[in-house]
Specification:
heterotrimer, A alpha/beta, B alpha/beta, C alpha/beta, B: alpha/beta, Rossmann fold, four-stranded parallel sheet, 13% strand, C: alpha/beta, six-stranded parallel sheet, four-stranded mixed sheet
Chain lengths: 470, 242, 211
């Protein structure tokens, strides 16, 4: 996917000015967050469970090579063809080669964020294949020609009227505006595609090293369709998704759906381990898995490694006040919200997403809900430090920080500076005691006043009261 | 007990009344209060902007100025979080410093935490009106401050405390964020002000001046010159004139 | 030229070389070993959870009563008395004389009702565990609008962890599906709609161990 992540400011301004989007984001509001809170009440040992989940993910990551090799061996035993792709372009090439060798014409896809990273759809369509997204949200976005705006509810930025317009225009059917009818319409439209597709493409929520299985966690049933009906199944997933054991999966599955939508379990959890057996009359006759690096290995062993624990539940964005106001597309690439503000610069390079680590108040709402305890604010701070070290911040900001640093270390100059600042701000204040315009700080004053200082600094007043000071 | 009072850079510059309120409350509760006269800033603005060195330098300055106190009290959850949660992580390559910061972190208290550990002197304060309390992020999530300020406010005769919707959602301040990404910051402040007004409260109270400036600035820009904005310590100390 | 496989493994090893191995004071496997709950407890929990997720659960006193109950149920729901079934169920369901017209094969697009058994059922989440095989094709629980699962009380287990032990008794299937209620989506305005691509109705006949 072409990245617009380095235009975060413009993107977010546009999103803030889009009245429909704003209405849709307000409707989304805290719904997932509330559902999560209710679901977590069922887990009396939630905090211990989060510790275990983080430890499980760390164990996978610290011995990633071993678990990947174990997975590969088990998957091969089960008849799966295992491919490794260092880059997104390589993923697309491998999928095309599989498609051509198997004479594939139609592809049905269940949700795969990694395929969004690689721009797989464009590559396949460019090669003349018919590609149909089958997750309802992804299907809506394919019709709208838009990227997803959320990890698990990719079309949450669209309202029912917009979906109705899209369906009427593309299906050539009478426009309907009630949600169950629209869902029904999608089911009716997509069913023939499932039945006559040659290839099914899925992501993979987890890979299980001890069995060589790909795990899909879904609600709609499209994941099962695309792995049951077409002749060829290709699962595409990041190398970090491997888990050592089924028991590890058990623990993470207690947290993933609850963190995501507040469900105790999703409707379907599928463990896929190879192609159809000789005596079976259904199931793909070819089963492939593509293990994708795409910048992940570069994150290992660095301060950002905890971000690779991510199990893509979306809780961080569901609780992020920045995300909730600007929507996912402002982040400009595949992964939105707090985790996107870390993964995008980590995978694409910090110079490709300069403002993303700044796109947070560090309020910490994401960190307290992350099921695998990714210290998201600390990682954003880490990226901010790297931005400074790499000289990626604007000179005015650098100068400001440096000046403040120096002043704060020199109390006499600092007191003098405070006096000047207080004098200046008081001069600029209106009769109501508000400064309405601050040159150089219009980011503040374009939408807010700045209350003027009370008159003198605490320290100067305190000295005047001639109290004892240390 | 010898208590060091850390005023914070924002209170020093913008609203000294909060500092004097804290001073009064501490003295009323029987502490010997010392205001280190060389104090400036805890270093959080630089630290959060990616300037690790300024965080470290100012942490050392703080250590130098405050290590001898029995307790260090700060009327801000945000600065308190910096001192208690972040300082001890800054010197992982220096065990001696790390242990000194860890020890000092154990003696750093946000004002409400500190006051509630001691018998509270009888309050002479009255405040007639309805208040709503905004949970500031760092205080809430780094220090776990939630009930303390509410509990203190409820001891004041005449105070009616009402809860706003989304009380623990960020007001949009975020330090330099409020300037760098002013559009988003403003929208968050706007949402917060909507929640505040929906309560019908006479005043919104909080424990961090950064949030209070954001909220007050937005309320006034929206033309609301009725809703007052106070640090809870100002109300408790009887310095909120209304 | 180095293969991508070797390149990726090389990078991983280079990156992890000398990395601090994580704090292993936390046991990643929860070890709380609770005594197995009684059948009554399991049954009640399974019924509660499955119902909460939108499955309809009917208790059937004996295994022998299942075919007749199935017939009555389809009639009540105004469904055709015709269903596609797991071939594995043929020896059982075929010997009973009902008006049901049953086909024992993988599902086809026109099938309205699919009847399956279940390898085990998880009480904690109200979940059916289904393994695919020639005799238990996955499409039967997927393509028809109505999925009827015949579940023996003897196959109730408490949680997912216990289900792995149950599954380990047989060779690993191509696909193991944990099914918890009818398919659903909330992709339009976060409004939950039952019946996405999979079945819109899941009926569970939970039968007792008496013959």
């Amino acid at each position: 996917m072409h990245s617009k992540a380095d235009h975060f400011k413009e993107n977010s301004r546009r999103q803030l000015g889009d009245a429909t989007l704003q209405q849709n984001m307000r409707r989304f509001g805290g719904r997932f967050a509330q559902a999560r809170a209710v679901a977590m009440e069922e887990l009396p040992d939630l905090e211990a469970l989060r510790d275990q989940a983080a430890a499980i993910r760390d164990r996978s990551l610290y011995q990633l090579d071993e678990w990947l090799l174990r997975f590969e061996a088990q998957a091969k035993n089960a008849g799966i063809t295992v491919h490794w792709a260092a880059t997104g372009a390589e993923v697309n090439r491998i999928v095309l080669e599989i498609a051509q060798a198997a004479d594939v014409r139609k592809v049905v896809k269940s949700k795969s964020m990694v395929s969004e990273e690689t721009g797989l759809n464009e590559a396949l369509i460019g090669a003349g294949l018919h590609v149909v997204e089958t997750d309802l949200g992804e299907y809506i976005l394919q019709l709208a020609e838009e990227p997803p705006s959320h990890l698990i509810a990719p079309a949450l930025h669209k309202n029912v009227e917009e979906v109705a317009d899209l369906f009427a225009a593309h299906h050539h059917t009478p426009r309907q505006t009630d949600i169950p009818s629209l869902c029904r319409e999608a089911r009716v439209q997509l069913r023939p595609h499932f039945l006559d597709a040659d290839m099914g493409i899925t992501g993979g929520n987890f890979l299980i090293a001890e069995t060589g299985s790909v795990v899909l966690v879904t609600n709609e049933g499209n994941g099962r369709m695309v792995t049951t009906l077409p002749r060829v199944h290709v699962a595409i997933t990041g190398i970090e998704k491997v888990l050592p054991t089924l028991d590890d999966l058990t623990t993470l599955l207690k947290l993933l759906p609850r963190s995501a939508t507040g469900q105790s379990i999703t409707n379907y959890v599928s463990l896929l381990t190879g192609p159809r057996h000789d005596d079976e009359r259904e199931g793909p006759s070819q089963s492939h898995i593509i293990l994708v690096d795409g910048g992940r290995s570069e994150v290992l062993g660095t301060a950002l490694q905890p971000a690779l624990r991510c199990i893509r539940c979306g809780a961080c964005m569901n609780h992020c006040p920045v995300y909730q106001n600007i929507g996912g597309q402002a982040y400009g690439w595949v992964y939105p919200g707090p985790i996107g503000a870390i993964l995008t610069p980590a995978y694409l390079g910090l110079d490709q997403a300069r403002d993303l680590p700044q796109a947070a108040t560090l309020c910490g709402a994401c960190e307290v809900v992350c099921p695998v305890r990714i210290p998201l604010p600390a990682l954003m701070r880490e990226l901010r430090q790297q931005s400074v070290q790499q000289g990626l911040r604007p000179w005015r900001e650098r100068l400001g920080v440096r000046l403040w640093h120096w002043l704060a270390l020199h109390p006499r100059s600092y007191r003098w500076f405070s006096r000047v600042l207080i004098w200046g701000l008081s001069k600029m204040a209106n009769a109501q005691g508000m400064v309405t315009r601050l040159p150089g700080l219009d980011g503040w004053t374009q939408g807010r006043d700045m209350p003027a200082p009370q008159g003198a600094s605490f320290h100067s007043l305190y000295r005047k009261t001639s109290r004892k000071t240390s | 007990m010898r208590v060091g009072l850390w005023i914070t850079c924002l209170v020093d510059l913008m609203r000294p009344a909060i500092g004097f309120s804290a001073l009064k409350l501490l003295e009323d509760s029987g502490c010997t209060v010392v205001v280190p006269h060389l104090q400036t800033c805890c270093g959080q603005p630089g630290y959060n902007s990616g300037d690790l060195q300024s965080g470290k330098d100012l942490a050392l300055k703080f250590l130098h100025e405050c290590e001898d106190f029995d307790a260090v009290v700060v009327p801000s959850g945000s600065c308190g979080g910096m001192m208690r949660k972040h300082y001890p992580t800054l010197f992982q390559d220096n065990l001696e410093l790390q242990s000194r910061f860890t020890a000092l972190a154990g003696r750093v208290w946000e004002l409400s935490e500190f006051l509630l550990q001691r018998p509270l002197p009888p309050l002479s304060t009255r405040f007639k009106g309805r208040l709503t309390y905004h949970d500031s992020c760092s205080g809430l999530r780094e220090l776990g401050i939630r009930h303390g300020p509410r509990q203190l406010l409820q001891q004041i005769p005449g105070v009616e405390l009402v809860e706003m919707a989304d009380r623990d959602i960020c007001c949009g301040f975020g330090g330099a964020f409020s300037v760098k990404l002013g559009d988003i910051s403003t929208r968050m402040a706007e949402n917060k002000c909507r929640s505040i007004r929906a309560t019908g409260a006479h005043a919104v109270v909080g424990g961090d001046l950064g949030c209070l400036l954001t909220i007050e600035g937005r309320l006034r820009r929206e033309g609301d010159d009725q809703t007052q904005v106070w640090h809870w310590a100002e109300i408790l100390a009887g310095m909120a004139s209304h | 030229m180095i293969s991508s496989r070797d390149l990726i493994l090389q990078r991983i090893r280079a990156r992890l070389h000398g990395a601090v191995i994580h704090d292993d004071t936390i046991d990643p496997q929860p070890t709380s070993v609770l005594p197995a709950p009684s059948l009554e407890v399991l049954r009640q929990r399974f019924m509660d959870k499955a119902s909460a997720l939108g499955s309809m659960v009917h208790l059937v006193p004996t295994r022998d009563a299942v075919p007749t109950i199935l017939e009555n149920l389809l009639q009540e729901l105004e469904l055709p008395l015709q269903a596609v079934c797991w071939p594995a169920l043929a020896p059982w369901l075929d010997q009973h004389h009902t008006r049901l017209n049953l086909f024992f094969r993988p599902a086809e697009p026109a099938d309205a009702v699919g009847v399956t058994g279940c390898h085990c059922a998880i009480a904690d989440t109200g979940t059916l565990v289904l393994r695919t095989s020639a005799l238990t094709p996955g499409s039967v629980s997927l393509l028809p609008e109505t999925h009827v699962a015949l579940v023996s009380e003897e196959d109730l287990v408490s949680d997912m962890k216990a289900s792995w032990r149950h599954l380990a008794r047989e060779p690993w299937a191509r696909s193991v599906n944990f099914v918890s209620g009818p398919s659903r989506t909330a992709d339009i305005e976060q409004t939950v709609v039952i019946g996405a691509h999979g079945p819109a109705r899941v009926i569970i006949l939970l039968y007792g161990s008496a013959p």
